[in-house]
Write a structure and sequence with these properties.
The complex is a heterodimer of chains A (183) and B (585). Chain A contains 6 helices and 8 strands, in the order H-E-H-E-E-H-E-E-H-E-H-H-E-E. Chain A is of the alpha+beta class and 183 residues long. Chain B contains 20 helices and 19 strands. Chain B has helices spanning 103-109, 128-131, 169-177, 184-199, 230-236, 239-242, 273-286, 304-315, 329-351, 355-360, 362-378, 385-398, 402-405, 418-434, 440-443, 450-461, 468-476, 504-525, 538-545, 549-561; strands at 3-5, 22-33, 36-37, 44-49, 52-57, 65-69, 73-79, 88-93, 135-137, 144-146, 203-204, 211-212, 263-268, 447-449, 485-489, 495-499, 536-537, 565-570, 573-578. Classes of the chains: A alpha+beta (183), B alpha+beta (585). Chain A binds chain B through residues 16-17, 19-22, 24-25, 27-29, 31-32, 35-36, 73-74, and chain B through 529, 531-532, 535, 560-563, 566-570, 575, 577, 579-582, 584-585.
């Protein structure tokens, strides 16, 4: 991804507050913080969606454009990022990979949304009843236009498990790989 | 009665006269006239000063506060209390002369509901104001004796100071009544009063015609009530009658016709009467009010040049070379200036000879210092601002009257708890801060930290310094006492003292307005990044509003707390921005 972005040519998903220095300081005032938090939440989700980011390594992304505005030389500190992601986890827009809270899955759509998208895609393409590997779903040539293209395997499994619970799919192992059958 | 309504300071303490000092304060005091409780004056503080006994009621202090001049007090007595009766100090008032002129004083000093029995008009100005500064010449040894202060038509005739022989009353009366150098408005009244007093020397009983002593109210022979017209009565009710009586109520219920109220009692419900009595004794012995022969309230701050002239005349200092012939024009002005300067020089030289002289000349020197300061300030050619500042500061310090503000522990009775001391301290601090001459709060941008105040206040006191904990305790009482300043604790725990009217909203509004103004200027200048306005550091706010840095940080955090500012912490420090989210809500 391009490190240098002209401020004037920022993509639309960048919030206007991106250039506001106090945006990068956690506001002690509760009311200000809640506004700031919601701005950050939507920005993170929009950013991840635009960049097709599925998992966020907080320490690594700290230095990216998401949390670091080089033009005003402001960086969102790590504890604040963690706090925001925590909030995302609360609303099931994210999930910590481990208890160390260093890497998180970011669901810019909820797993349910992805599940229904998967189901309708399989339905539309007439692949009901056929066994598809997970790799096929995320890396296959047919799915490049789909939103879940490139999705993390573990995450995809999570979404498919929703379908399994509904009784619309079955997940089984094929050697090292995993397959799914939807009906 | 001798009560006068008094002025109170913003902090609801009695406003002291220029040479008056506070001696003692006692709370939980009630006021009696004669043996009757005075309504609305039953729960207050008694302030003993060198000149007066002031009573300030706790409720509606501005309405119910009076003072009794000590010079009107003939004598006083301590009553220790008995069972449910509180200890009291009784002030027996000097018989004063009735005067229509002085009834004006009365009407202002007393509310209609105030007196339990209809009392004839009595003067609050005793006779000695006329007798003061006069001398009588002993017919035996021709020694010119001064009049004693309590001299009046009923007072015992004082013996000559040299030979000890008492003169006849006529000698004294002749001098008192001689019109020379008596102030016109007092003189008239006193004269007529005296005349009637002399005529009333006989007091015949209407029933048995026995000629009683003029002070008696009941006939010595038959016990008949001696009827007397009100004016005479006020004279009759002299201390000679009351003197032997007990202050305790004698007849309960009916009020004998024509009863006079000639004593005032302070009832000490919370104790403290002993110390009050001691201090009162001292004050009555010292008679500080005798020193004050000038008009009652000379203002220190009146035009300095005029004042120096006044003082010179009243002190009897020989005049500087005054041109005998009238010289006009520039030369005349020059001469005049020269004379003034020489006089000033003499005043300064004299004042600094020794401490006593300095004290006695304090007023003069203060006036001079202020005069110099204003001259300097007016003179643009003297651009040395440092000198100017030093001079005006020294003038300000000279004009400080620490005794106005210094409440010491020994002024407060030991019987009442420390809280009274702290309350008084709080009042004195409030007065200190509210004092226009210093305008401490204004200089500090309307808020001063407790630490700074402690330093400034103790510097002003000079002696009897207060401890920080006392200051804190006193400051905590500001709200309770409804003083014009308040103690505020910021989030961080920093304590500042602020004007009461300076609320958070006002501060926030001014800060935000200032930021908006700044960003407006910014947009006019450059176009870059004007979207978010301009940010400031706490230092900028401190400069702008005259706050100390600590106060500025706290105030900004207060505004942040309200959500109107947001912070931007970076390696440069914390910058403050107007919150874009505040208006969104």
């Amino acid at each position: 991804m391009a490190d240098l972005k002209d401020k004037t040519a920022l993509p639309a998903y960048y919030p206007e507050f991106y250039s506001f220095p106090p945006f990068y300081t956690r506001q002690p005032n509760a009311a200000s913080w809640s506004s700031q938090l919601s701005q950050w939440r939507s920005f993170i989700l929009a950013y991840c969606r635009a960049h097709k980011l599925w998992r966020l390594n907080l320490v690594d992304t700290m230095e990216t454009d998401l949390f670091y505005n080089k033009s005003i030389n402001r960086k969102l500190p790590l504890p604040t990022i963690r706090e925001i992601v925590d909030d995302l986890v609360k609303s099931s827009n994210a999930e910590w990979l481990s208890s160390e809270k260093s890497i998180a899955y970011i669901y810019w759509r909820t797993p349910e949304d992805f599940a229904s998208q998967l189901y309708s895609w399989i339905d539309e393409t007439g692949q009901k009843g056929t066994v598809l590997t997970l790799l096929e779903l995320t890396e296959g040539d047919n799915t490049t236009q789909q939103e879940w293209y490139g999705m993390d395997q573990a995450m995809l499994l999570k979404c498919l498990n929703i379908l399994v619970k509904k009784g619309q799919a079955q997940v089984f192992s094929v050697g090292d790989d995993k397959g799914v059958k939807v009906w | 009665m001798a009560f006068r309504k008094i002025d109170l300071t913003p902090a609801l303490r009695p406003l002291l006269l220029p040479s008056e000092t506070l001696l003692f304060v006692q709370d939980a005091v009630g006021l009696y006239e004669g043996r009757y409780k005075v309504p609305n004056f039953q729960n207050g503080s008694a302030y003993l000063t060198t000149h007066r006994v002031c009573f300030v009621n706790n409720d509606e202090p501005r309405k119910y506060s009076v003072a009794l001049e000590l010079k009107d007090v003939e004598r006083f007595e301590l009553y220790n209390g008995f069972l449910k009766s509180s200890p009291k100090i009784t002030f027996y008032l000097r018989p004063s002369t009735p005067s229509l002129l002085n009834s004006r004083d009365r009407s202002t000093s007393r509310s209609p509901t105030y007196s339990p029995v209809p009392t004839p008009p009595r003067s609050s100005t005793p006779l000695q104001s006329a007798a003061l500064n006069r001398q009588w010449i002993c017919p035996i040894c021709t020694f010119p004796n001064p009049f004693t202060l309590n001299f009046g038509p009923l007072a015992p005739i004082p013996p000559c100071l040299t030979c000890g022989v008492k003169p006849s009353r006529s000698v004294l009366d002749a001098i008192i009544n001689s019109p020379a150098s008596v102030k016109p408005h007092n003189g008239m009244a006193d004269d007529s009063a005296l005349q009637s007093g002399i005529q009333r020397s006989k007091n015949a009983c209407p029933r048995c015609t026995f000629e009683n002593d003029q002070a008696l109210r009941n006939c010595e022979m038959c016990g008949e009530v001696l009827s007397s017209d009100p004016i005479d009565d006020s004279l009759v009710a002299g201390p000679s009658l009351i003197r032997d009586e007990s202050p305790a109520p004698r007849y309960l219920g009916s009020v004998p016709a024509g009863e006079q109220i000639d004593c005032v009692k302070l009832s000490f419900r919370g104790g403290g009467e002993k110390s009050f009595h001691e201090k009162l004794k001292g004050a009555m012995v010292q008679r500080k009010w005798l020193l004050e022969q000038a008009p009652p309230v000379p203002t220190i701050t009146s035009g300095a040049a005029n004042l120096t002239l006044d003082v010179r005349e009243s002190d009897g200092v020989p005049r500087a070379p005054v041109p005998t012939e009238r010289i006009v024009g520039v030369r005349g002005l020059e001469r005049q200036n020269l004379a003034l300067r020489m006089n000033n020089q003499r005043a300064i030289a004299g004042a600094f000879e020794d401490l006593e002289a300095l004290m006695s000349r304090a007023k003069e020197i203060i006036a001079l210092a202020e005069n110099f300061a204003t001259q300097l300030a007016d003179n643009p050619s003297l651009a040395n601002s440092e000198a100017k500042e030093a001079l005006s500061q020294s003038a300000a310090i000279l004009s400080l009257r620490p005794e106005d503000f210094a409440v010491t522990k020994d002024q407060i009775s030991s019987s009442s708890s420390l809280s009274l001391y702290h309350a008084e301290l709080a009042r004195s601090i409030a007065d200190f801060l509210a004092d226009d001459r210093r305008s401490i709060l204004k200089k500090e941008g309307g808020a001063i930290t407790l630490v700074d105040l402690w330093a400034v206040y103790n510097r002003a006191r000079g002696v009897e310094l207060i401890s920080p904990s006392d200051l804190e305790s006193a400051a905590k009482l500001f709200d309770k006492l409804q003083l014009p300043v308040r103690l505020r604790q910021f989030k961080s725990g920093l304590l500042v003292i602020q004007e009461r009217k300076k609320t958070d909203e006002k501060v926030a509004k001014s800060v935000v307005a200032w930021l908006e103004e700044l960003s407006k200027l910014e947009t006019q200048g450059t176009t870059t990044d004007s979207k978010w306005g301009k940010s400031v550091l706490a230092k900028d706010a401190a400069e702008k509003f005259g706050w100390s840095i600590a106060v500025a940080i706290e105030e900004l955090e207060m505004v942040e707390e309200r959500g109107e500012l947001v912070r931007d912490t970076s390696f440069e420090g914390v910058r403050w921005w107007k919150s874009p989210w505040y208006s969104l809500e």
